[in-house]
Amino acid sequence: MRRIGSSSKCCLLFTLCFAAITVSAQSNYQVITVSNGGTIAGTVKWSGPLPHGLDFPVTKDPQICDPESKKRVDLERLEVGPQGGVANTIVYLKNIYSGKAMDLPEQRRHLDQKRCHYIPHILLVPQSTELQMTSSDATLHTIHMEGAATFNLPFPFTNQITSRTMSTPGLVHIRCNGGHVWMNAEMMVVAHPYYAVTDESGHFEFTNVPPGSYQIVAWHEGWGQEGKEQVYDVLTQRRVDRPLFTAPESWEKSVTVTGNNTSVVNFVISGTNGLPGHARNEASP
After folding, report:
1. pTM of the model
2. Cβ proximity of 232 and 239 under 8 Å
3. How many angstroms separate the Cα of 67 from the Cα of each of 70, 216, 240, 242?
4. Rounded distance between C-alpha atoms, residue 46 and residue 249, angstroms
5. Backbone phi, then psi, for 118, in 5-degree steps?
6. CATH class assigned to 2-284
């Protein structure tokens, strides 16, 4: 496993570097008719004790954000299922230059703000297409983006759609500048269709992959908190504390695809109390 960094500045640097690498590596992707395409399937699973402290106090609009009066909210940074599957991991092929047309799931291109959470937590948006955003909450949210896209968009009314075209491939951090400091999501703007987000069981799958050898990457946003930072609440015009997260984690393997066959790649990751993780990578034809 290669760890990228552990501060907000490192996270931003990682984002910019990731965007540059993605633009360089994938800008020449061509859609072709795939003959005798293969499948890549696998899982991302957690090993060992789960880290603690992945929640945050509800400090604003509890009647909307915390209707069950739990007082704290899950930061959604690490979602591990009953069988150890890690959801919300982005898995993608790194060095693919031609293949099928874009067919990413439509629901990953639409962002809702509901009970002061972003739904979905991880977005996949094809380059040069629109991200559609709305809010189900009767309070002011402000979507603030940093990285491959930079927008600051207010949502004072419910159920009104705002759209923006995502022109540059790469990683985008999404936060709320309306004082709901725990709200966080990640968006990957992508230049080819061989990206997937793991489901609740940690499963992913790519279909219709041209035969050949590739690098496959599992990317996780990171599950640790390393403190707080003060940010500006645009509504109250006061500074408030927002959680700082550790840098993303990524793991990489080689995989060979043969015609009409399935190649299996499994990742096993672990970590303690939000500290840097470790990974075991397993692959079989």
Report:
1. 0.89
2. yes
3. 8, 41, 22, 21
4. 13
5. -90, 130
6. mainly beta
Distance CA 206, CA 217 (A): 13
Query: Which run of H or E residues covers position 13?
Result: helix 8-26
Residue 100 gets which letter from DSSP?
S
pLDDT tens for the chain, 285 residues: list them.
333 333 444 455 555 555 444 444 456 899 999 999 999 999 999 999 998 878 999 999 999 999 999 999 999 999 999 999 999 999 999 999 999 999 999 999 999 999 999 999 999 999 999 999 999 999 999 999 999 999 999 999 999 999 999 999 999 999 999 999 999 999 999 999 999 999 999 999 999 999 999 999 999 999 998 899 998 887 788 889 999 999 999 999 999 999 999 999 999 998 754 454 444 444 433
